Amino acid sequence: MRKLSGLLAVLMLLLYSGGAFAQSSDYEIIEAYKSRRQSLLESIKAARDPGQHDTLESQIGSLEADYTQHQKLLGEGLYPDTFGNSIGALREQLKKTTERLALLEEKKIDKATIETHQKTITVISRQNEELSRQHEEDRVSLEKLTQDVANLNAQIERLSTENAGLLEKIKGLQLESKKDKESIAKLKALTEKLNANIRDRDDLIVKMMDSLFNEYSKSDLTDAQKNNLLVNAQGNDYVGKIIATVDGNVRSVERTVMLPQDVGLIKGEERKVTAKWNAIKPYVGKIYPDQQTAERELARVDGRLSDWKRRIGDTTWKSIQQVFVDQKVDIGMFYTAEEFHAHLLAYLDEQLKKPSRAEYQTFKKKVWDSPIKDQWLPVIPTDELTAKQRSDIEERIALWEKKISALFWRWMLIWVFCAAVTGGILVVGLRRKKSSPPVS
Question: Which domain holds residue 21?
């Protein structure tokens, strides 16, 4: 009986202990779930980065998977809520958080866009202010350019008129053919003044070309501003003024003769104006409304510049020929380096056939050594009168000198012989006179 009572007591103890353990395990499951769910809910609410969405969604899925087997127990422990509702509430909260973060992100983008637009507006505003300032500067610059051109035109016209008067005076003196010191000095002074005026006028026309086309070539000018400059150029007849200046220079070159220093100066002016013209020609072509007109006007200037260069050459050889004429050394007419070389060699060859000391002295001292060799040849380009041609002439002159020298010594020997014979005859005559008996 005692044994039975003890056995019943043990059974009762085991039943009580098992029930208590089961209740304790269910409680821990419910509390663990609540703890994980609460922690996850706080993480969802605290999220600040849209990139966390997938991680949080994954954690909700893990929580649901871990406790699905306990959903009945959790339904009792979460009453009046249910396991499904509590998981759904997490997903609903995640959705709200995601929408909130997306809205914040949009606001950030909108703010950044607004800031970008504001910066762009500021930049555009500053650019507009700069353009307005630049337009005003361009307007003032164009007005100044117009005034400068007017002033330059007046100076060019004054020099052109003065040069025309100087040319008439020079031609008048040259026609008089006076060789006195006063006439020579006056002619020299007039020529120097004319050359100085030519330099000044060329400088003015180059400056006028620069004033327009340096402005036109600025990279920041608008098409409208460039068009205004070109209209200004067309209205002021830049091309006509360039041609008029070149024509004036051609007329000055056509005067009767030039000095060697004149040639060097005028050639320098021709090269300067031609170089400037070649630099601005692409811009000048844009002045005209059509290609055909542009080509015609550009060709006019090119032609006049070529004519200027040709006339310089013509007058140079004309002036060299005048040196021979003044000393009455007739080598014939020549107009080019080739003709000069051929005529001079022909003259020298003729002199070698019948060498004359007087003619040699005149040619050598008054023509060749100076002014031809020391003054004129240096201003003649070597591609015009070559080194070989110059050498040919020098060799002929040297041969002429040898023949004159040989002729001199020949006549000297003849003179000495004649003097000796004459002396001998005189001596014999005197001796005979002394030895003859006196007449009674």
Answer: 2-125
Q: pLDDT (tens digit, 9 = 90+) per residue, 16-44?
A: 444 444 455 888 999 999 899 899 899 99
Statement to judge: residues 151 and 15 lie in one domain: no
| Residue for token pair 């510049």 | 305
185 and 237 inside one domain = yes
Asked if residue 83 has pLDDT above 50, the reply is yes
Is the same domain home to 292 and 381? no
Domain-ending residue, one of 81, 100, 125 = 125
**Rounded-to-integer distance, Cα 206 and Cα 245, Å:** 10
Residue 313 tokens read as 């050459």
Our CA dihedral for 272, 275, 276, 282, rounded to 10 degrees, sits at: 170
| Encoded tokens for 253 | 């070159």
Helices (H) and strands (E) in the chain, counts: 12, 0
Is the pLDDT higher at 307 or at 248? 307
pLDDT at 373 over 50: yes
Which domain-ending residue is among 265, 300, 326? 326
Asked whether residue 303 is domain-assigned, the answer is yes
Amino acid letter, residue 13: L
- Contact at 8 Å (CB) between 313 and 254? no
φ and ψ at residue 335, rounded to 5 degrees: -130, -5
**Whole-number Å distance between alpha carbons of 243 and 254:** 16
90 near 41, Cβ under 8 Å? yes
Instruction: Evaluate whether residue 182 is within a structural domain.
Output: yes
Total-model pTM: 0.55
